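Notes to self, Outer membrane protein assembly factor BamE:
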Amino acid sequence: MQLKSIIPAIILGLSVTACSSVQKVVYRIDVPQGNYLESATVEQVKAGMHAQQVQYLLGTPMLIDPFNNQTWYYVFLQQKAYNAPEQHTFVVNFDQRGIVTDVNLDKPLPDVQKEYINNAIIQGPEAKRASWWKFWE
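result:
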């Protein structure tokens, strides 16, 4: 009697666990961490800028070198779904007066497509106005 109720439970348990061997079924979000770096803003940082201007463009650095306060590190880590994480490091060196002397980006940043940032449709004054009762036009 007990055997008749255990066998279907075992079969059901084995069939459910057999489906779990399929990989990448669960949705994983894109996870950006650190200083979000865009190629357009990184290109604006040039030698001769002040530290306040760099901080205005890129934000607070992720790390300031503890042995040399004139080196700022901006680190951007992006992991998209099941892909390997991709890290970009942007190093800004200053002189004693706080003016940029050298910038270094370890690898190129991906281009951001601006059309996907805001999905709102903006129509100009030349847009045709339809009546509320003629929605099919």
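- The mean pLDDT is 80.
- The first strand starts at residue 31 and ends at 34.
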